[in-house]
Amino acid sequence: MIKSKKTLKGRISVLIGLLTAFFLPVASAAAGATSSNVPLHFLRSADCTGEVVEISGTVHFVNQTQADGSIVGHFNYQNVTGLGLTSGNTYQTAAVDHIRLSAPFPSDITSVQNFLLISRGSDSNLTVQVIYHITINADGTLTVHIDDLNMQCT
């Protein structure tokens, strides 16, 4: 009985070692990722609801340079909500957008991303279109700004 416990412990130790060795390169590759937060605050008219909606939250942008020199990025809409200023109707989202930028750099691009604000009440949902201005310097440093935001009822 004691021999089988030692064998089991040995197998578990080997398994842990293999798993650590397997996942270690992934962890070190992810360490090269950079991130930034872009505040989001806009007032826009929602024609279908007949009121102005306040949209606020944070867009968290994470990007990483790939082996081929391209940059992969993810826009994560954190705590992004909408509030109907007349009705008090609230909207929420849980969205992530992705982007891939190809070299050569430096460059400036405009990227249009959409997310859905879902009504908690009986009002229509809202499709929000965000227009991003993305600048990539020659050294790969990336900055993101929101140029504009548009909204449509769905």
Provide an overview of this structure.
The chain is an alpha+beta fold. It has two domains: 1-31; 33-153. It has one helix at 2-30; strands at 34-46, 51-65, 71-84, 90-92, 96-101, 107-119, 126-136, 142-153. Strands 1, 2, 3, 4, 5, 6, 7 and 8 form an eight-stranded antiparallel sheet that branches. The N and C termini lie far apart (67 Å). The model is unreliable at 1-31 (pLDDT under 50).
Overview in brief:
The chain has 154 residues and is of the alpha+beta class. The chain has one helix at residues 2-30, and strands at residues 34-46, 51-65, 71-84, 90-92, 96-101, 107-119, 126-136, 142-153. The chain has two domains: 1-31; 33-153.
Estimate nothing, just give the exact number of structural domains.
2
Strand content: over 45%
Task: Give average pLDDT, whole number.
Answer: 79
Shape: elongated
Low-confidence stretches: 1-31
Order of H and E elements? HEEEEEEEE
Helix amount? 10-25%
* DSSP helical segment count: 1
The beta-strand count equals 8
Distance between the termini: 67 Å
Question: Which class best fits the helix and strand makeup?
Answer: alpha+beta
Q: C-alpha Rg, in Å? A: 23 Å
How would you sum up the major sheet? 8 strands, antiparallel
Describe this protein with a few key phrases:
8 strands; 154 residues; 2 domains; elongated; eight-stranded antiparallel β-sheet; 19% helix; alpha+beta; disordered N terminus; 1 helix
SSE diagram, text form:
Blueprint: H1 2-30, E1 34-46, E2 51-65, E3 71-84, E4 90-92, E5 96-101, E6 107-119, E7 126-136, E8 142-153
Antiparallel strand pairs: 1-2, 2-3, 3-4, 3-5, 4-6, 6-7, 7-8
